[in-house]
Specification:
Layout: E1 6-9, E2 12-15, E3 18-19, H1 20-27, E4 31-35, H2 36-50, E5 58-62, H3 69-77, E6 81-84, H4 87-95, E7 103-105, H5 112-121, E8 125-128, H6 133-144, E9 148-153, H7 184-193, E10 197-203, H8 214-234, E11 240-242, H9 259-277, E12 283-286, H10 290-293, E13 297-309, E14 313-318, H11 327-331, E15 337-339, E16 349-354, E17 363-370, E18 378-381, E19 403-407, E20 410-415, H12 420-424
Parallel strand pairs: 4-19, 5-6, 5-12, 6-7, 7-8, 8-9, 9-10, 10-11, 11-12, 14-16
Antiparallel strand pairs: 1-2, 2-3, 4-13, 13-14, 13-18, 15-18, 16-17, 19-20
Helix pairs in contact: 2-9, 4-5, 5-6, 7-8, 8-9
This protein binds ligand LLP.
Ligand LLP binds next to helix 10 and helix 11.
Length: about 425
């Protein structure tokens, strides 16, 4: 198989040194499996392209792609920062012992309680996404007596070439502060003059699963144009520019670009911006989510019923489905599967791999190629590591599968599988119904 950390040894399929059929037997299916080596390789690749030789640049893993305490621990060990977008992600990171000063907080509608939590823990940066937020941060900071670092998220008005649901940088967006009427300028000035916030610069995120660098560069031009206006308006030069995430990952046959393809020209652009103005090169920050976690994760399933609808298609139903991977139903996302039970047989049977939810749209892979699929076979769906577990639900009251971390032949639980008891744990029977 031409996938990293997969190999066939003695007729068995291994992922990061672990025998997948053995894992399915020992831990049950469905189960999410993450290769620590794939994740750390990605991080090291980005560090080499981005921060080595440019010590001011930082990586902040976008934890929305996949978050749990173990993932935060791994990020801590690898020396990267993290981006959180909710009180829940922030709480989990802090509970995992992640250093608060390396946390940055994004989100288009942070509540006062979430901002209070961020200030309470003294996190590294809050990315202001609306003009209402500055006041909320000042209020929390004054109460705690702690100055908070902030950046302003702008809507750069560029459209990345990707799925409409994951485009965020175009003009018509709920994210960021629109730029057309310069309304951002008085707010940045207010923030620069505020004794409770320390303005570091600007942030943009243009979308997800992007394979071209042109939209990133156009967004940088837009950000630097705002930086010039800010300087003209209140004499302040940005020190930091957060360029978001969105670097494409491989699901099926995509031709993935190395991180340097995106980052080299962006680093050069930042240097040019600074040298033309005679100022310090602004620190660049990335927020990769999918590109760190997608290919690191796979999901193991067991095939149950196989139904042939003559002349139309054959359905192979698995023990998972849209409750643990909503992406095919939500975005028409494409995946590939391999047979774990028969890794050496040719994958020459076309079946549609459907889930067990009560929805016709619960199809994980339409027209997948598998080796002789039979009830009881274990299969692996590949590249499920981003926005799978993190978007899972209890639809049809199905328990969310557990997460195994694997590395060099060793497997350990990172998240235990949910039980029926867990699902019903918060339910109450109101007095009026007893
Ligand atoms: N930074 C910000 C501010 C973001 O909004 C996002 C993703 C990222 C970074 C990370 O982007 P990435 O590197 O993962 O592409 N649920 C969708 C993806 C939604 C992305 C939302 N924001 C999916 O499953 O495709």
């Amino acid at each position: 198989m031409d996938r990293e950390y997969f190999e066939i040894r003695n007729g068995r399929l291994l992922f990061d040194g672990c025998d997948l059929l053995q894992l399915a037997k020992e831990y049950g299916t469905p189960v999410y499996i993450y290769s620590q080596n794939v994740i750390t390789d990605r991080i090291r690749e980005m560090k080499a392209a981005f921060s080595e030789g440019h010590p001011q640049n930082r990586i902040a893993y976008a934890s929305k792609a996949f978050a749990c305490k173990a993932m935060f621990k791994l990020m801590e060990k690898e020396g990267v920062c993290i981006d959180v977008v909710s009180g829940g992600e922030l709480y989990t990171a802090v509970k995992a012992g992640f250093p608060a000063e390396r946390i940055e907080f994004n989100g288009n509608n942070k509540s006062q309680a979430e901002i209070d939590l961020a200030v309470e823990h003294g996190i590294g940066r809050i990315i202001i996404d609306s003009l209402l937020e500055l006041e909320m941060i000042e209020k929390a900071a004054a109460k705690k007596g702690r100055v908070m670092n902030v950046l302003f998220r702008i809507t750069p008005g560029v459209k990345a070439d990707t799925h409409d649901y994951v485009v965020t940088g175009k003009k018509d967006s709920k994210f960021g502060i629109p730029l057309d009427d310069d309304r951002i300028l008085p707010y940045v000035k207010m923030a620069v003059e505020s004794k409770w916030v320390n303005v570091l610069g600007l942030h943009f995120h243009i979308g997800s699963q992007i394979f071209e660098n042109t939209a990133f560069l156009a967004a940088m031009d837009a950000a630097f144009a705002v930086a010039d206006k800010i300087h003209e308006y209140c004499g302040y030069w940005i020190e930091e520019l957060n360029i978001g995430g969105g670097f494409g990952a491989r699901y099926t046959g995509e031709q993935k670009k190395p991180f340097s393809f995106f980052l080299d020209p962006m680093i050069r652009k930042a240097e040019q911006f600074a040298s033309e103005r005679g100022i310090k090169v602004p620190a660049l920050v990335t927020e990769p989510g999918r590109s760190f976690s997608a290919e690191a994760g796979i999901t193991l399933y067991t095939i149950g019923s196989i139904k042939e609808v003559r002349g139309i298609r054959t359905y192979a139903a698995i023990d998972g489905g849209m409750f643990e991977n909503i992406r095919p139903a939500l975005y028409g996302a494409k995946y590939e599967a391999v047979s774990v039970s028969k890794p050496e047989l040719p994958a020459d049977k076309t079946v549609s791999i459907c889930g067990k939810c009560c929805e016709s749209g619960d199809m994980i892979i339409k027209d997948a190629l598998l080796a002789d699929p039979q009830p009881g076979d274990v299969i692996a769906v590949l590249s499920t590591g981003a926005y799978g577990y993190s978007m899972a639900s209890n639809y049809n009251r199905n328990p969310v599968p557990g997460v195994l971390f694997v590395k060099d032949g060793k497997a350990e639980w990172a998240v235990k599988p949910q039980t029926y008891e867990d699902i019903a744990a918060l339910d109450l029977i109101p007095e009026s119904l007893r």
